[in-house]
Amino acid sequence: MDFKQKVVDLIDEQVDLPKEKINLLIERPKNEKMGDYAFPAFALAKIEHKNPAEIAKNIAEQINDENFTSIQAVGPYVNFAIDHAKLVNSTLTDVLTEKNNFADQKLGTGNVAIDMSSPNIAKPMSMGHLRSTVIGNSISKIMEKVGYTPIKINYLGDYGTQFGKLITAYKLWGNEEDVKKDPITNLFHYYVKFHEEAEKNPELEDEGRAWFKKLEEGDPEAVKLWKWFREVSLQEFNRIYKELDVDFDSYNGEAFFNDKMTPVVDELRQKNLLHESQGAQVVDLGEDENPALILKSDGSSLYMTRDLAAALYRKNEYDFVMSLYVAGNEQSGHFKQLKQVLKKMGYDWSDDIYHIPFGLITQGGKKLSTRKGNVVFLDQVLKDAVALAQKQIEEKNPDLNNKERVAHDVGVGAVVFHDLKNDRLDNFDFDLQEVVRFEGDTGPYVQYTNARAQSILRKANKEVSMDNLSLDDNWAVAKQLADFPNVVAKAAEKFEPSIIAKYALSLSKKFNKYYANVRILDDNEQLNARLALVQATSIVLTEALRLLGVNAPKEM
After folding, report:
1. In the chain, at which end, N or C, are there fewer CB atoms within 10 A of the end residue's CB?
2. Of the candidates 507, 510, 471, 468, which has an alpha carbon nearest to the alpha carbon of residue 487?
3. pLDDT tens per residue, range 197-226
């Protein structure tokens, strides 16, 4: 049973407010002795022209429901105290019956396009790409949990002036044999060297532009090299995506839209939205806004042109109800302009486009930069994380079966969880030693809690029945389990995986406190209820981790 929804329904019968508004107003009292849910009557004071405390008193007197041991006014609040036995019984029954479908909801339907990851061809995936990849992957799982159909799009950076620079660098310093041996590393070195040399010799930039022009014009050598760079890069990216257990529905990158931009420019002209500014073609967005640049003075396209083509293609191809762009916070201005231009073109579905911004990962307080070579390769981070996990498993449980698989799940999971436990918009410093710890606010701590629950169930070796599940000892954990559907809904509404990561940490702490204080395996009439709680906790922790893109080993 959803007790919060029950509170909303009871209040709805008494007041003249929309249900959505009531739902937003319901809060948790800071002191648990005051009850489990509270409705503040302040919003009704202006409507009823009464004191909020008087309104709260009147509402409380009108409500009676067997699911609550007490419904009373405390100042301007109507406080609800849940019947503990009913919550424990109904929650454990729901979780054990529905299993990993617990907290499934129908908050909406339809396709949700998610533009995510989007690394640049011929550059190794860095820690900077981790955020867009794992945030997008988690959001796709959360949206699916609440009824939508996610479509994950890897909008590869496979076109642009950087390819002219890379071709120039390859022809000056590269050779085919080295690239075949270690494609990404060597292509990356050429790219970094180009920028180092261009600082001393600016004419290199002109050579780079000339090679890109050849590529645009279909020069056979330029096209052959570009295709080769793209192919070897994709092989490397897919190896890392396999490590992260991330897949995509589309790899249509920038190059895919080369022939789709001219129709967009033509449409902008037909609708009298394009005008010249300092030689460039722009769309005016108003007095206080910078114009959106559509074509450079030499007639070449820009990111905006390509993104307009991509947005129109995706709406036509997927008929999305939402289109999400998981990209750094620094791109907020770009996506604001994208929506404004689409709106001016007459496409009201631009209101369904959302930029999902995120902060930076730093190391030692410094921003990572591919151009300057100050970069931490994601591949190496994942390898180091797995090695650290393996070392700790060898120390704690050397006889563990399938150690390599568990070390992989723990190491990779630790990196993913650490990213997602941080609020999306926060910047954070990455320290691998902290990330892979088995104690503290880490992924391995949550995984270990689940493995502990599984170990208890193996030792008990007993089928859990649905009878007499209520115990006072079970209340704190069961109350947390009952919150999971609301947590999932909130994470979906805010596109915020950290809500689920923080919930998993909180549930783990409550369960470990329970484990420390209760003799779970004592064979008496309470054993079934205690095992039911253990099993329900494992089900919800496993599902919470799955929504984050993290595996939950049954042994550690």
Report:
1. N
2. 507
3. 999 999 999 999 999 989 988 999 999 999
Q: What is the pLDDT of residues 318-359, one digit of tens each?
A: 999 999 999 999 999 999 999 999 999 999 999 999 999 999
Pairing state between β 361-363 and 428-429: parallel
Residue 11 Cα distances to 32, 68, 185, 454, angstroms: 20, 14, 62, 40
* Tokens found for residue 54: 């008087």
DSSP symbols for 173-230:
H--HHHHHHSHHHHHHHHHHHHHHHHHH-THHHHHHHHHHHHHHTT-HHHHHHHHHHH
Q: Are 26 and 38 in contact (CB under 8 A)?
A: yes
Helices (H), 461-526: 475-482, 484-494, 498-517
- pLDDT tens-digit readout, 356-401: 999 998 877 676 655 555 567 899 999 999 999 999 999 989 999 9
- pLDDT more than 70, % of the chain: 98
How many CB atoms neighbour CB 278 within 10 A?
6
Cβ pair 115, 79 in contact under 8 A: no
Rounded to 10 degrees, the C-alpha dihedral 505/510/516/518 comes to -150
Q: How many CA atoms lie within 13 A of 391 on its CB side?
A: 9
pLDDT at 471: 80
Please list, residue by residue across 384-412, b when 16 or more beta carbons sit within 10 angstroms of its beta carbon and e when fewer do.
Answer: bbbebbbebbeeeeeebeebeebbbbbbb
In the chain, the amino acid numbered 202 is P
What percent of the chain is helix, strand and coil (3-state, nearest 5)?
60, 10, 30
Tell me the C-alpha distance between 549 and 132, whole Å: 13
